[in-house]
Design brief:
The structure holds two protein chains of two kinds. Chain A is α/β, with parallel strands linked by helices. Chain A has helices at 65-72, 99-105, 117-120, 127-138, 143-156, 162-165, 175-187, 205-222, 233-239, 257-262, 267-275, 320-323, 346-358, 372-375; strands spanning 23-34, 37-49, 54-58, 82-89, 92-93, 110-113, 193-197, 225-230, 242-247, 250-256, 328-331, 334-340. Chain B folds into two domains: 19-37 and 47-251, 3-Layer(aba) Sandwich (Rossmann fold); 277-398, no CATH class. Chain B contains twelve helices and 14 strands. In chain B, the strands form three sheets. Chain B has an eight-stranded mixed sheet with strand order 6-7-8-3-9-10-12-11, sandwiched between helices. Chain B has a four-stranded antiparallel sheet with strand order 2-1-4-5. Chain B has a two-stranded antiparallel ribbon with strand order 13-14. Classes of the chains: A alpha/beta, B alpha/beta.
């Protein structure tokens, strides 16, 4: 940190210091006015992503994970969306930018990979045309140069015979190849920030593994910042450096991935982990689902939005969970792990009540204690 | 309407807590389904066939559950739809309680339909948006004359309660329910006729993670309570492992490995099963950091119109040799409850240098037919035999 006594005004364009996080989102709120009322899709969301690092955003459908990332690209219709807060890409403020200025960033320094490649690709244009379109908008190059670049990109993402396949239409590609083509399209301008919205959800596991490998290789090569939006905690565990858990439009837990997944402190995160059967866990253990359904964002619950589904509400003194929204503050495990929960002793509850239920094989059957080598790896040892 | 009388339908009234029986409920034998590919133009000739399911055999005991896993296009859904007779099989037998239901006509199928029900993948498109829940769940009862008209509504409410929905909501429309609740409606509809066999085709893959667990638990309860046999079709290996004591892995229209849960997940012998298991991302990796070492499969599943010769997995297999292109590996029983179709079947990283199947097939190591060597008789029945071929000793052993 510099010792500059002059405080920098918040919304002034800061010089692009390479050490600064590439993306800074501060107090972002996204609201959609509808006939039924105001949909509070994202509320007071803050996070940062550094170059070369990956942020994983997890949550159920409707938790605001896609909406918040679309705001980074300015993909919301200004007429029907109310945005507030600040989004700075490489020091430059995005919110309030004109559409024309947005276009300079979109697809250039910030690019997005969408979930469903078949609907995200235009069926009427060849793969090559669609890849070179983005390149030609941001670079003054001829058509043939752009096509050369498309072939190069297709080769880079592992499409066999790229100089022949470049003239194919999306329907001639298989699911995995379409996803690769879309990644090629996103990477054509060497973006410094890549937002992957459920990039592998529609794919089979073996293809998913290929795509995740590819994303990771490309990130290493270009040192870009990556946001990966998913509901699969396994994907987050293997790819993300930091993880943010979202619920009802707010971040409920945020910190280093290893921290979040080995010492979650928020009951919703516990619920997510308990809902997933594991390929290596005890097969006869019963899944522990989160009761109830995700809340409506038109009329979110009072206090903590998770309280109607939370099995630990009674452990908080008073009626705090129902009346007061908890702040996103550091818990027992240091300042780099923040959570939005009133529970005073989440670590204890997790170890004593939650873990034995969701992962009995991690707990010693005789002593009832955690088997340390499975539950925790010393952060310094790795 | 059909003229099936009530006495034809013997509802499967199982005692609560019915356990897995020893009696075979369903036996599928060499089942095939080829979809014709038609040419363009006025005269649409059949130019090729999509070999969606090509010689699948398995058996399912009363009250048991078998998981069918594989990637998209491997034929697992087609298999499910053949068993429910939503498709007509091209060849093979589907023996349900000893009778082949493959060639039955629509009318002959009628009484059997009540015993084989299906849960569909997408709870949004599998419920008629213009029917109330009461109509959706009550229709099977009416069609099969299960209960007198006056009793339909009480029975519907009972079913809604079984699947965890409010029985008072029978006059609501599907649009008023969330995805998980809709899937429960689909389950209530499937349970209405007290079937003996439920084909669940990706019953949870369209749902949110937190809701998936609710539905999986519901299916577990339903099975324990009513003793229904399940054919559980899914691509999610973890969900299948959780639900099914027995698992079959399909690749390009064939079963490549089938066995009990412990064997398939802990000691898989087919390279494809090994690759599938290794590809699944693991939450526990978070404690270690970085990505897990995994088998990387190259490329995509080949076209089922023109599948590779010999072993269908050879084009993506890292162990493939000459024999794999020439000889199709038989689905060989290699353990008490374990069958695998691979010339080099072994636990991971322990692949033998020579194919294990040469003596059985009467071929040399390259897969050319060797003079003098006679192919041995192989057990090729849908179930498991008392004798099997031990991979390590290359002997037939019994246990």
């Amino acid at each position: 940190m510099s010792t500059d006594i002059h405080e920098r005004p918040d919304n002034m364009a800061a010089p692009a210091n390479p050490d600064d996080p590439f993306l800074v989102v501060e107090n972002l709120s996204v609201r959609f006015p509808t006939h039924d009322g105001l949909v509070q899709a994202v509320t007071d969301l803050s996070y940062t992503v550094e170059r070369g690092k990956t942020l994983g955003i997890v949550g159920e459908s409707g938790s605001g994970k896609s909406v918040s990332s679309m705001a980074v690209l300015g993909l919301h219709d200004a007429k029907s969306t109310r945005l507030s807060g600040s989004i700075r890409v490489d020091g430059e403020e995005i919110i309030g930018r004109s559409e024309e200025k947005m276009r300079k960033i979109r697809g250039n320094s910030v690019a997005m990979i969408f979930q469903d490649a078949l609907t995200a690709l235009h069926p009427f244009y060849t793969i090559g045309d669609q890849i070179s379109e983005g390149y030609r908008i941001h670079h003054r190059v001829s058509k043939s140069e752009a096509k050369k670049r498309s072939i190069e990109m297709l080769e880079r993402v592992g499409i066999p015979q790229p100089n022949r396949r470049v003239d194919d239409y999306p329907h001639q590609f298989s699911g995995g190849m379409r996803q690769r083509a879309m990644i090629a399209m996103a990477l054509v301008n060497d973006p410094q920030l890549l937002i992957a919205d459920e990039p592998t959800t529609a794919l089979d596991v073996t293809v998913q593994a290929q795509i995740l490998d590819l994303l990771q290789d490309l990130q290493r090569e270009f040192n870009s910042a990556v946001i990966i939006i998913t509901h699969d905690l396994g994907v987050v565990a293997e790819l993300a450096d930091t993880t943010m858990v979202m619920y009802a439009g707010r971040a409920v837990e945020y910190g280093a991935t290893r921290e979040i997944l080995t010492h979650p402190e928020m009951p919703y995160s516990w619920g997510l982990m308990g809902s997933i059967p594991d390929v290596s866990a005890d097969a006869d253990a019963r899944l522990v689902p989160i009761p109830g359904n995700p809340p409506s964002l038109l009329n979110p619950p009072s206090g903590c939005a998770f309280h109607p589904r939370c099995p630990h509400v009674d452990k908080v003194p008073g009626n705090l969970c129902r009346t007061t929204l908890p702040d996103l503050v550091p818990g027992e495990r240091g300042v780099n792990h923040v959570k939005r929960c009133h529970l005073p002793n989440p670590g204890e509850i997790y170890a004593e009540e939650v873990l034995p239920e969701i992962a009995p094989d991690l707990v010693d059957p005789e002593t009832g204690e955690l088997i340390p080598e499975l539950a925790e790896v010393d952060p310094d040892a790795v | 309407m059909s003229i099936v009388t009530n006495s034809d339908i013997e509802p499967a009234r199982n005692s609560p807590g019915a356990s897995v029986g020893t009696e075979t409920l369903l036996e599928v034998r060499d089942l095939k389904k080829y979809f014709p590919v038609k040419s363009g133009g006025v005269i649409r000739r059949t130019v090729a066939h999509v070999q969606a399911v090509d010689g699948v055999s398995f058996e399912l005991k009363r009250g048991a559950s078998l998981g069918l896993v594989g990637e998209s296009g491997c034929g697992k859904t087609t298999t499910g739809r053949l068993i429910t007779r939503l498709y007509d099989p091209t060849a093979g037998e589907i023996n349900f309680e000893g009778n082949d239901i493959g060639p039955l006509t629509r009318r002959q199928m009628m009484p059997i339909r009540s015993e084989i029900q299906m849960i569909f993948q997408d709870p949004y498109s599998s419920l008629n948006p213009r029917h109330t829940v009461g109509t959706i769940v009550g229709t099977p009862l009416r069609v099969h004359n299960m209960v007198p008209e006056k009793k339909v509504l009480p029975r519907v409410q009972e079913l809604l309660e079984v699947v965890g929905l409010n029985p008072e909501h029978y006059n609501r429309y599907p649009s008023e329910f969330s995805g998980g609740q809709r899937q429960r409606i689909g389950i209530a509809r499937a349970l209405a006729l007290q079937p003996k066999l439920l084909v669940a085709d990706e019953p949870v893959s369209a749902l949110d993670v937190s809701i998936q667990a609710q539905v999986v638990n519901l299916l577990t309860d339903v099975q324990a309570e009513f003793g229904i046999a399940f054919l559980f079709i899914a691509h999610d290996l973890a969900v299948v492992r959780h639900f099914c004591p027995e698992v079959a892995v399909m690749y390009l229209g064939k079963i490549v490995e089938i066995g009990d849960r412990e064997t398939i997940y802990e000691r898989p012998h087919h390279p494809y099963t090994q690759a599938l298991l290794s590809a699944a991302p693991d939450v526990r990796q978070a404690a270690i950091g970085g990505r897990r070492e995994r088998i990387r499969l190259e490329g995509d599943v080949p076209s089922p119109i023109n599948p590779p010769s010999g072993c269908r997995f050879r084009t993506r297999c890292w162990m493939a040799q000459e024999i794999c292109a020439k000889q199709e590996p038989p689905l060989l029983q290699i353990g008490k409850r374990h069958k695998v179709a691979c010339h080099f079947a072994a636990e991971i990283n322990q692949a033998p240098s020579r194919p294990i199947t040469t003596e059985l097939l009467g071929v040399d190591d390259q897969g050319n037919s060797a003079g003098g060597a006679e192919p041995q008789h192989l057990h090729n029945e849908p179930g498991f035999a008392d004798q099997w071929f031990d991979v390590k000793s290359k002997q037939v052993v019994s246990g």
